[in-house]
Specification:
By secondary structure, this protein is of the alpha/beta class. 45% of the residues lie in helices and 16% in strands.
Amino acid sequence: MKIGIGLPASIPGVSGDEILDWARQADSGPFSSVGIIDRVVYPNWDPLITLAAVAAVTQRVRLMTTLLIAPVRDAALLAKQAASIDVLSGGRLTLGLGVGRREDDYQAVGKDFHRRGRRFGRQLALMKRVWTGEDATDGAGPIGPEPVQPGGPELLIGAFAPAAIKRAGRWADGYLGGGGDPQAALGLYNAVAEAWKENGRSGTPRFVATNAFALGPGAAARGAEQARHYNQFLGEDAADQAARRVLTSPEAIRQVIQDFSEIGLDEMVFLPQVPDLDQVGRLAQIVG
């Protein structure tokens, strides 16, 4: 099982230099990818712009959105931006996409939260056309650049609802799940794999998941507070649950790796809740 590490770009107050230093250190190993999560109404860094900068200071690790809220963006421009990062990085982009659960993100950009699933389905079809060199719309002409990865960047979809599972099986290269219960994640992955087969696709989808972490002296309290702050939109109880799920010891991280490895996970991306650069080295010592 591969191990990736998130960038601290969603932690309020983190600087650009800190993000790039983090990416450089992650690129030195042993991590397979660097991930980044998305919000609109939150003091985080834009995922695509951040990954473009990270592409310039890394050579090895894959660049992954874990995940990007697609329906708050224009599909043609999103396809162009993703292709651009794929070219700049030499074909290292993994585009994790989903619809998100935060209505305020949609309100901020003037999009309909309640029709986001339908919009997402149309976006996926359009982006695939763009990445294969077809016109985005009749007579509009092709949109470049041509991605390094044939057919476009690797595409993962995070999904829970039945309609979303079917979209993942039809369009995606893999499934992006959350942490927590490995068996629950496996159940959703199996549903995506079944939808994959129903669409006549060969092989199997990739299986990726994420978990939050905070390591070292004083990190547990800080990490819990960050998780609580980020998830406060869900309500106090859910935010407290997110805070309790932050992994704060080497033993807890090793156990999660073992549990998810046993169900056949391809890659786990650990998302930081503390921006200190020593978090990269602490996690590397555990998983290296």
